[in-house]
Structure formats: C-alpha cells, structure tokens
Amino acid sequence: MKMIKVMEKRKTIREFKDAALSANIMNHVRETIAGIPQLIETASVEIGILQDGSSVYKALDGLVGYHGIMIKAPHYLVMLCEDKDENFIATGHAGEWLSLELTKIDLGSCWLQTASKSDLVKEKLGIQSELVVASILAFGEPKGGARLSRIYDASGDHSASPLTKFGYPYIDASYKDESKSDRLSISEIVYNKTFGNTMSLDEIEQLGFEEVFFYMRFAPSWGNLQPWRFVLQPDRLILAMKRNEVLEAHTGLIDAGIAMLYLDSAMKSKGFSGEWTVGKIECAENAGIPEDHWIAGCYRF
C-alpha cells in the first residue's frame, strides 16, 4: 500500500474502544517501532509502549491532552528526546511515521501535548529519565464507525481488513472519509523562489509538483492550523513555519517534523529523490522568509 494513500485517509481519532489490543498486534507495534526511519542522524527519539491505558489516563487526566483534554485509549506511546529543537522535529517525524503505520492495520491514534509538563508527566508515570517527554500518542481500535480500511487495495465489499491476519473479523470496505474542504489550497502554501511570490496551480503542475503538494496538505497540525509554507527554488524546497505565540514552541517543532515526513513521502512516491537538511537557516538565506515565520529546513533534490 502506497504511503501517500495512507496519508490521505489518516485522521485523528479521539474515541477508542476500551478493549486492549491482542498480543499479536502489540508485538507488531513493537516491531514497527524498531523500524522507524531516522530523519536526523544526530537526533534520537526513544519510544516506549504504555500498555495499561487505564492507569495512564487516570494519572494524566487534567494534566495533558489534545487541546487540553486527555484522550482515553487502551494504550499509549511515550516519546522522549533531548531538549533540543532538532530532536523535537525528529519526534514529529518518527511519531507520525508510526501513526501512519498504525493506520495501515486499522488502528487510530491521537497526538497529546506533554513537553511543557514533562517533569510532571514523568513523575506521574514513574519514568526515570533525563530526557524530555516530547509527546504521547494515544492509540487503539477506533470506536464506532471511525474505521479506516477504505485506504487499502480492497476490490469491493467484503474485502478483508488488514486486521484479519491478527484474528479480527472482516471490516466494511465502504467507509467514506470526512471532507477535507478545510485544507488550504496548493497555491496557498507554495511560493516561487521567494516567500510571498505566489504560484498558480498550472505553474506548479508544469514543474511536476502538483500531486506532491496535494498529498502534503494532509499533514496533521495542532488545531489544523496548517502552519507550513514552502518556497520552491531550482534545487530545493524551503520549509518555513508560521510562528504562534500562543502555542508552546515544542508544538511547532513537532508539526515541522510531521510536515517533513509528508513532503518526503510524497516526493519519493512521485519519483523525486531528495533529503532534508534540518535547521540550517543559511540554506534559505535568499528566500525572503519574514520574521513571523521560522526556517525548519531545506529539502534538496
């Protein structure tokens, strides 16, 4: 299954079934964690499974959450890193890659903000570490009709869900995703050579990047603010993130890492090769990035 189709259908899940996932699925999650690709060689992210979701929920309710509300889930993933910008960006990249992999087997997930209260979170969860709790990812089987299996290469009704191999029954393949009309248009997020120099969709299409940005737009962001903007230059794409004085800085860094994952996945799916240089502002010195944005990195191709 192509990652770009998973990106298109991935959605934040805020209601989960109470039942714990099977041992087979949890083993699959552990194996998936071990295979997370690295965005930055010098920035490591530690990810652990919090198996007893009920205890985690009780410990953190009222302390952290999604828009301040703790999400109840059968399991959680805790992500720890050093308190450095590039490590938080790497956390966003790693956590969202994992979320997409969970989506492939019909599991839902939800990012929870924790970084500003890391010490309290570690105390509540009994975590002995000098690292920062960058974020927590709630995950499990979506509740009710929030099923995701339409993203798979199903040939029609009664096609098997990816969870079938783990002992789950068939899942309806006719699930229709929610509208994406709240997404910014491609022309609103891509500039030509310098920031603010807008491009028409025809111009972007002529350069072969229309589908790349179509899929990149599905990157989740805090409050769906979609803070990412791209400056397209002959040999690179520059990622600029809109500053938000209300949000904690860690949130924007994690959003940048997520955006980098979606852009890279979309580029590679369309036959472009390239890689990210993270946090090197000199790569964007001629792009005219305004002060109300910060430079997350450059994608050279």
The span between the termini is 25 Å
Rounded Rg: 19 Å
Shape: globular
On the 0-100 scale, what is the average pLDDT? 88
CATH level 1 name of the largest domain? Alpha Beta
Structural class: alpha+beta
Q: What kind of sheet is the major sheet?
A: 5 strands, mixed
Write structural notes for this entry.
The protein has 301 residues and is α+β, with helices and mostly antiparallel strands. The chain has helices at residues 3-9, 23-34, 53-60, 85-104, 118-125, 186-189, 201-206, 210-216, 249-269; strands at 46-50, 75-81, 108-113, 132-140, 190-192, 228-233, 236-242, 275-278, 293-300. It has two domains: 3-166, NADH Oxidase, CATH 3.40.109.10; 186-300, 3-Layer(aba) Sandwich (NADH Oxidase), CATH 3.40.109.10. 31% of the residues lie in helices and 18% in strands. The strands form two sheets. It has a five-stranded mixed sheet with strand order 5-6-7-9-8. A four-stranded antiparallel sheet has the order 1-2-4-3, with helices on both faces. The longest helix has 21 residues, at 249-269. The model is unreliable at 149-180 (pLDDT under 50).
Main features:
301 residues, alpha+beta, NADH Oxidase, 2 domains, 5-stranded mixed β-sheet, 4-stranded antiparallel β-sheet, 9 helices, 9 strands, 31% helix, globular, Nitroreductase family, flavoprotein
